[in-house]
Amino acid sequence: MSTVAHLLDAESATIEDLEQDPYPFFAHWREHAPVAYVPAVEGWMVSRWDDCEYIGKLEGATNSESLYSDSFFGRNILTMGGDPHARLRSAVDVPLRPKAVAKYVDALTRPVAREYVQRVREMGRFDASKDLLERISVRVVANVLGLSDFDDDTLQRWFNDLNQGLNNFAGDPEVDSRANTAKREIHEYSESVYPKLTADPDESILSALFTGNTEDEGPRPLDEIIGTAWVIVLGGFQEPGHAAAASLLGLLTEPEQYAAVVADPSLVPAAVHEGLRWIAPFGTVQRKALVDIEVDGITIPAGDEIQLAVASANRDERRYEDPERFDVFRPRQAQASFGYGEHFCAGHFLGREVERVALEEIVAGLPDLRLDPDRPVVEHGLFVRGVKNLPVMLGEQ
């Protein structure tokens, strides 16, 4: 066995390696160990498209209990199953359905995106992730969630602190403290608006968590839904901002593709779709085996944790041509970034529409955008992955 192959073995992978750049590991595992036990994640990593889809859609064989999200968020919509999940999910779905989103997304997103595009236009050099896309995402999604009382800096701090807390595998007490502060502040705000929203519900997602689909049982107790509120804050802020950053990075890495989208903005939806495939905002879908599961000749024992590596499935050579490359002209195929089955992402349509509007405003207002050659792009994360820093500048090269 070569030294490189040995370093990419499942047993050799560290969580630090996987958070820094999981893609070489995924490529090796897809070829040599598509179902591999990875000690660093304390579970099985499934890396091929067909295998991820098979397990993800296998009814009654897994649930969504998670070694990580349960301990961090407590009981929440991602780890529920059966009727409790169905009732809460149906309540949350109402403001996130395509027809509902279509009524408000442009009015909520376009003015915000246009404002921030103008701000960075005046800066000349900026971080497109931190200064632009994260800020558009947190402001728009916060308004949908019912968190419009908070300024952008607070919302961005919550997002980053929850993100780092969820992925604090080193157990850094300062990281835990910041994450707990964010959770406490969200809890305190939810508690403060609970009486008003239960007496007079509005169209926000927070209101839906309190009273949606409760019939004659009365509002849900806050303690039952606060974990879901934390999950939605992290997931809702993560997907539009970092997914749009992935699309923008892909376009700027291939400048002729950015120029093509500037010339023809009808390509923006394709850029959104390709960015989601290229860098999945949530790199794995976490499941727990309820029964022994056999896949690719390997038996995953009941009770074991399973990571369906959708970030790897989205780059499976068996499904996509030249999958490591961002290609806005790629023939459209489904991608796995939103998960499977009953836990398919509730906010998938909202996320894509926020990205679409943001990117439309960027290509219209920043046609001369390019990567800053003097500062590095930073991607990070395994379970929650994003383009953390995207340094760019304006002007012809």
Automatic annotation (TrEMBL):
Keywords: Heme, Iron, Metal-binding, Monooxygenase, Oxidoreductase. InterPro entries: Cyt_P450, Cyt_P450_CS. The keyword Heme applies. Pfam families: p450 (PF00067). GO terms for molecular function: heme binding; iron ion binding; monooxygenase activity; oxidoreductase activity, acting on paired donors, with incorporation or reduction of molecular oxygen. Belongs to the cytochrome P450 family. PROSITE patterns: CYTOCHROME_P450. Coiled coil: none annotated. Its EC number is 1.14.14.-. PANTHER family: CYTOCHROME P450 YJIB-RELATED (PTHR46696:SF1), P450, PUTATIVE (EUROFUNG)-RELATED (PTHR46696). It comes from the Bacteria. The keyword Heme applies. This is Aromatic O-demethylase, cytochrome P450 subunit.
